[in-house]
Structures are given as C-alpha cells and as structure tokens.
Amino acid sequence: MQVSDGPGAPVTSYAYKASLIGSAHRFELTDEGLSWRIAGRSGVWRYDEISAIRLSFRPVSMQQHRFRADVSRTSGGRIAILSTSWQTAALMAPQDSGFRNFLVELHARMARAGSQAELTAGLGRKTYAAVLAFLAVLAVAMAGLLIRALMIGEFAGVLFILGFAALFAWQVGGFVRRNQPRSYSFDKLPAGLLP
C-alpha cells in the first residue's frame, strides 16, 4: 500500500497479482472514488455508488491465511480484492497490512461520502447453511466410525479417527467461525475478517 500527498486528499493504493500470468490488479482511493485497473480494463466507482462490500476468510492450499473483499456497484459490476499476491509457482505472499489499511480507508471514505452500502461479513446464508449441514453429516459419520471401532476393539482406528477429527476441527473450525454470516457497520469492521 502506498499513500501519497496530492492536491486533494492523500491517495491510498493497493495491488496484488491474482495469478502468475497477467498483470497485477491495482486499486487507488482518490477524491473521485475507488479507481481500479484489472486485466486491461479500468474505471472509477464513486464512493456513494458502491452498493455492497462482503468480507470473508478464504484460505487456499498455497496460503492458509487469505482474506477477500467483494465490492459491488449499484449499476452492476463486482471487484474482488485479495490479501495475497502470487510471487512464484510455489509461493503466494501475504500482504496483510496493505490489505487491512486499504479496506479500513475505503470504509472511512465511503462513510464520509454518506454511503448506504450493505456491509456483510462471511459467507452467504444459504452457503453457510449448506456448509453446516455437510459438517453435521460428516460428524454423524465420524461418530459412527468411532463407535464401531470402539465396539470391535480397534484402538489404532480410534486414535486415527480422533486425530483426524481434531485436525479437521482445527482446520475447518476457523473457516466456519470466521465466515459466519453477519452485518457490520463502517466504524466496526469485523476483526476476524481482516489480517
């Protein structure tokens, strides 16, 4: 993130590479609004015409600590802003402080512009319900396997199931907890969804 003084308010910028090939996605917060440049296209969205922001926690295999902001415009269009940037074929680098500072400043500028944007956090309610249903079915299946292993005296199997369940709960539990659907306000951004 860069902040530079100009004739008006400071310009706050953020950039990340969404893939190894192609140019970086570049964003600036200017007096006019959110300026973006993605894959040869560009535009400026006034702060008062941004209709929604959704913050979420989206880990991937190459980066377990990745956050995402989806910014939507009243007249159509959506921009995804990620907290990580591809460096090499095997390295995705976090950009935690730049991502956080950019989003905090975006929310502040939208609030000053009198924005009525819908601010939501986590997954959509239907998606979250589907995730919970899947986890409930998985928990019942694992409990059944655990009971069966105990009944036949297969203690190595019991230890494996308990270890797998603990690892799964640790990995998936954070994702489910952070992505619980909720609304937030301009002055209280959800801490669990910002690095």
Secondary structure layout plus pairing:
Blueprint: E1 2-4, E2 11-16, E3 25-29, E4 34-38, E5 41-45, E6 50-57, E7 67-73, E8 78-82, E9 84-88, E10 91-94, H1 96-112, E11 118-121, H2 125-151, H3 155-178, E12 182-183
Parallel strand pairs: 6-11
Antiparallel strand pairs: 1-2, 2-3, 3-4, 4-5, 6-7, 7-8, 9-10, 11-12
What is this structure, in a nutshell?
With 195 residues, the chain is an alpha+beta fold.
Keywords:
five-stranded mixed sheet, 195 residues, transmembrane helix, 30% strand, elongated, five-stranded antiparallel sheet, 3 helices, PH-domain like, disordered N terminus, alpha+beta, transmembrane, Bll5862 protein, membrane, 12 strands
Unreliable stretches (pLDDT < 50, length at least 5) are 1-6
Classified by CATH, the class of the largest domain is Mainly Beta
Instruction: Name the CATH superfamily assignment of the largest domain.
Output: Pleckstrin-homology domain (PH domain)/Phosphotyrosine-binding domain (PTB)
- Identify the overall geometry: elongated
| Beta-strand percentage range | 25-35%
Rg value: 21 Å
Structure description:
With 195 residues, this protein is α+β, with helices and mostly antiparallel strands. It contains three helices and twelve strands; from the N terminus they run ββββββββββαβααβ. It has helices spanning 96-112, 125-151, 155-178, and strands at residues 2-4, 11-16, 25-29, 34-38, 41-45, 50-57, 67-73, 78-82, 84-88, 91-94, 118-121, 182-183. A five-stranded antiparallel β-sheet has the order 1-2-3-4-5, covered by helices on one side. A hairpin with a 2-residue loop joins β9 and β10. α2 (125-151) runs antiparallel to α3 (155-178). The protein starts with a strand and ends in a 12-residue tail after the last strand. Residues 1-6 have low confidence and may be disordered.
